[in-house]
Amino acid sequence: MGSYRDFAARLAREAGSFLKGRFETAHDITYKGEIDLVTEADRASEALLIARIEEAFPGHGIMAEETRSAAAKKEFTWIIDPLDGTTNYAHHYPVFCVSIALQRGDEVITGAICNPMLDELFVAEKGGGAYLNGQRLAVSRTAVLTRSLLATGFPYDIRVNPDNNINYFSALAVRAQAIRRAGAAALDLAYVAAGRFDGFWELKLHPWDTASGCLMVTEAGGEVTDLFGGPFTLHSPHILATNGRIHEAMSEVLRGTDPLDVRMKTL
Ligand code: IPD
Ligand code: CA
Ligand code: CA
Questions:
Q1: pLDDT-above-90 percentage for the chain
Q2: How far is CA 195 from CA 52, 181, 199, 218, in A?
Q3: Looking at the domain that runs over 2-136, which CATH code has it been given?
Q4: In this predicted structure, which of 33-42, 55-64, 75-84, 231-240 has the lowest mean pLDDT?
Q5: Among 115-129, 150-164, 165-179, whose mean pLDDT is lowest?
Q6: Is there a contact between 53 and 34 (Cβ–Cβ < 8 Å)?
Q7: Which CATH class is domain 145-266?
Q8: For residue 64, what are the CA distances in angstroms to 43, 77, 100, 109, 169?
């Protein structure tokens, strides 16, 4: 299995340095929705990743955000986000990554996440641990919510759908030490694995946002469920990933928050 891990790691680095090389240039932006954008770099990174995977593993399936969001089921399927943090990238805000995972059947067996701006490569293998630039990762030991640094994000339909996380954000903002909304979900998950964040939650993510990062978190000793403590799958409507120690406390707050207690009117 190590060869899949090494391949994913090399590929994440290659696409990461491609994105870093284009970072300062003016981007060609098109809109998939009112605030959901895509740049030429997303598409070029995806094309590069697909070409490399098809060349190395012609029998494998590929699920990729921009061109192959519904992959045909194969024994092995690569799940890729060619640029996680597109809004940041388009604004030249240097927080983004490439995320690559390999699924065998329903199980994610390896993953790599590259943040080229910090030269950080996170790699995980099922049963083999999670690593940052070769150093073994472990989740944080923070045991209480009031000392916890949390991360989250908001869905692209935030303006038109009241199920937009503002209720959960309000509930946790007054209980945690602080919350960050950095804009790259895969990196948020890698940071939970690295012990930089104690917990992360979000709604309406896709398999390419979570596949690799979830493996990092569990391999670093953390816990991943849906918001309310139920089992998480890559198609779950929401995710809660923590160091394990604050999992129940976060889940309890989320369970106790009225999903319709919307503080902001939709436009
Ligand atoms: C987005 C980022 C963001 C999260 C969004 C994702 P993209 O991915 O991960 O942090 O809040 O829900 O869709 O569009 O930049 O690949
Ligand atoms: Ca993404
Ligand atoms: Ca993306």
A1: 84
A2: 32, 16, 9, 12
A3: 3.30.540.10
A4: 33-42
A5: 150-164
A6: no
A7: alpha beta
A8: 10, 10, 9, 17, 29
Nearest residue (by CA) to ligand 1, atom 15, is 85
The pLDDT of residue 259 is 77
Q: Ligand 2 mean position to 42 CA, how many Å?
A: 10
For ligand 1, atom 13, name the residue with the nearest CA: 205
Residues with CB in 5 Å of ion ligand 2: 81, 84, 209
Which atom of ligand 1 is nearest the CA belonging to 188?
Answer: 10
| Domain boundaries of the chain, sorted by first residue | 2-136, 145-266
| Ligand 1 mean position, distance from CA 185 (Å) | 6
Is the per-residue pLDDT at 261 higher than 70?
A: no
d(CA 100, CA 250): 28
